[in-house]
Automatic annotation (TrEMBL):
Signal peptide start and end residues: none
Biased composition (Polar residues): 1-12
InterPro entries listed in its UniProt record: CML48/49/50 (IPR044590), EF-hand-dom_pair (IPR011992), EF_Hand_1_Ca_BS (IPR018247), EF_hand_dom (IPR002048)
Protein name, per record: EF-hand domain-containing protein
An annotated Gene Ontology molecular function: calcium ion binding
Annotated region described as Disordered, given as residue ranges: 1-69
Keyword annotations: Calcium
Pfam families: EF-hand_6 (PF13405)
Residue ranges of every copy of the EF-hand domain listed in the record: 69-104, 136-171
Residues forming coiled coils: none
Biased composition (Low complexity): 28-41, 51-60
């Protein structure tokens, strides 16, 4: 068995920073008794969760699977790439659908999104409810990205990445930040900057690993004990995406 402990300077009592109104709307805390920066529940439905008021039967276009109130543009983007009308799309179709509403994401980011937003029993394709949650999450992350892209260059540097992740509830130590940012260092000697695609990739790695860790630390102690096999199963998807 292996024991893993979070950074010793990690604060669990910090008050949440001020967020844009668009981000605060419909935000659900991970735990009503916890205000820590251990990583908070994203302000979207749980991955794969379908609203109880939505129909469980599919139409020819899968529209009935979308949660009530889903914006028509989201439904349209999904239907546009679901050419076989199966009600599900794969990673290439997801990449195409998101490119119509955001920007073109690389397949590494798409695979991370697929891993985090799909049902573990069907991780190779994504359905309407998961797609709606993913789209909503990206919209909120776009608002955060633009908030910290103060010069409107379309890119953020390491310190802006740190602040953006902090505003999302992730207080990562400097050593982890350095590892994340080094992934995008091309060796030119210039300051490393991330576009929105890279920001989402970094954010999903931090968010995903944090949530996997929280599953093993239900009392929010900052430490957990699990087997080597469990540890490898947790981290490998984030390394090979």
């Amino acid at each position: 068995m292996s024991s893993f402990t979070n950074h010793p300077n990690h604060s669990y009592a910090s008050a949440a920073p001020s967020l844009p109104e668009s981000y605060r709307q419909d935000q659900r805390p991970y735990s009503s008794s916890s205000s820590s920066y251990y990583g908070q529940q994203p302000p979207v439905p749980k991955y794969g969760q379908v609203s109880s008021s939505s129909s469980s039967s599919s139409s020819s276009h899968g529209q009935s699977w979308f949660p009530p109130g889903t914006h028509p543009d989201v439904i349209r983007s999904f239907q546009m790439v679901d050419r076989d009308r199966s009600g599900f799309i794969d990673e290439n179709e997801l990449q195409q659908a998101l490119s119509s509403g955001y920007q073109r994401f690389n397949l590494r980011t798409i695979r991370l999104l697929m891993f985090l937003f799909t049902n573990p029993k069907d991780s190779l394709r994504i359905g309407p409810s998961e797609f709606a949650a993913l789209w909503s999450c990206l919209g909120q992350w776009r608002a955060i990205f633009e908030r910290f892209d103060r010069d409107r260059s379309g890119k953020i540097d390491a310190m802006e990445l740190r602040d953006a992740l902090y505003s999302l509830g992730f207080a990562i130590p400097p050593s982890v930040l350095q590892v994340l940012i080094s992934k995008y260092d091309n060796g030119s000697g210039r300051r490393v900057e991330l576009n929105f695609d890279s920001f989402v990739e970094c954010g999903m790695i931090v968010k995903g690993l944090t949530e996997k860790f929280k599953e093993k630390d239900p009392r929010y102690t900052g430490s957990a004990t699990f087997t080597y096999d469990t540890f490898m199963t947790m981290i490998i998807p984030f390394l090979v995406s």
